[in-house]
Batch of 2 targets.
Target 1
Amino acid sequence: MALYVVGAGGTGRETLDVAMAAGVDVTAFVDERRAGSTVRGLPVVGSDQAPAGAGYVIGIADAAARRRLAVLLDARGLVPATLVHPRAVIGPETVVGSGCIVMAGAHVSSSVRLGAHVQVQYNATVGHDAVLADYVSVYPGANVAGAVHLDEDVTIGSNAAVLQNLRVGRGTFVGAGAVVTSDAGEGLVLVGVPARPQSGGTSPRAFG
Ligand SMILES: CC(C)(COP(=O)(O)OP(=O)(O)OC[C@H]1O[C@@H](n2cnc3c(N)ncnc32)[C@H](O)[C@@H]1OP(=O)(O)O)[C@@H](O)C(=O)NCCC(=O)NCCS
């Protein structure tokens, strides 16, 4: 089956790295802004050129963008694929949802549930019994402890930590290096140790 990587930016190219390491052939990138160019020797096409029935994986770190594109591509009949780097660890009884990307050095422990289009990036860890809902992103080096529940569209920034048994509400962005020590509500930007709502910020930054 043909496989398209959606997004030809940084995270898209890292997604290609995962596919190559896993021995999975990629047909092309899908990226409207870069359509017509070549990235890493692969053609970049518009989304209308990816045929129904082909596989896709979204190499974009921003949760909202992933959600928008997944809805569009599903409606066009494409099928989400899952990519796991061979140097990632996936524990027993863990479920990895469709469209997920697990990068090199990531360790996803046992009895974890990763929803659709979740990203666990380089060297991040996810503890036993954790539940990561659809479109969650765990950035490089972050640690999500055991039995944590991350609602849809949550992002955990680089080297941040979420302590065990906690719940983080939908769309909340945990800044780089923060340590979440209590349950967190929806739509927040949390920074610091212990993590607190950010003052004076703009908006969560999208990457990739
Ligand atoms: C938390 C975050 C989303 C805030 O972004 P923002 O709203 O654009 O924030 P700004 O850069 O405008 O900073 C606003 C204030 O918050 C502080 N701040 C920003 N990020 C912070 C962080 N991670 N920890 C502590 N303080 C932080 C800034 O120093 C600034 O403080 P000041 O007002 O006293 O000067 C962002 O900084 C962040 O951490 N993103 C994750 C980065 C990451 O993990 N990248 C990995 C890519 S692979």
Target 2
Amino acid sequence: MAQYHPSEDLLAGYASGAVDEQTEALIAAHLTFCPACRRMVTEHEAIAGALLERESAPSASVAGVAAILNASPSRAPSTFNEPPLGTLSKIAPQPLARYVYEKTGEADTEGLNWTFYGPGIKRAILVGDEKGALVRLIKAEPGAVFPDHGHGSDELTLVLTGAYRDQTGRYATGDVQCAPAELSHQPIVEDDGVCFAFVVSEKPANPKNITAKIVQRLIGR
Ligand SMILES: [Zn+2]
């Protein structure tokens, strides 16, 4: 059972489609570990759906839109071919493995573009911009000590396998560390196996396409 969770604001943002795709992938993966957050997201989705219904004309209710989309022959089939997720699926829940595959075209962890980050530690940048890495996977051997580092922005880390510890706590499989920009830390990997982690540097929420995402989520289940 996960001990550390995304904030309720983030879960609400996820439920309403207001988070970016990397945060969405991270939270979707956390939800596979965490019944408590799944319940909270369901509640927020219900609220978002009710708001959408109230703000829309009666003929454009969620149920109405869903019915139209379901009836449309041009709609993509709801069961699309899943990518061939190889060893990625051994370390990452399906929503995250699919995201990594979409970003890299790699189905196996070995195929990712790993670079040296410290003794016993490698990282693969999945998404970056002129300011640096926004999204990356970390692979750290048991006992590895990270370089002491700060953060340019808030950062979310989802532990996929193994565990690490810093001055704020011990983070194990399924846990999400929400590190504020001002945190300076030096995580140490515990001895229970290789630690894979998915790390997202937070950017401001992107509210575009909220309505489309809510509808997509409501009809997608
Ligand atoms: Zn949770």
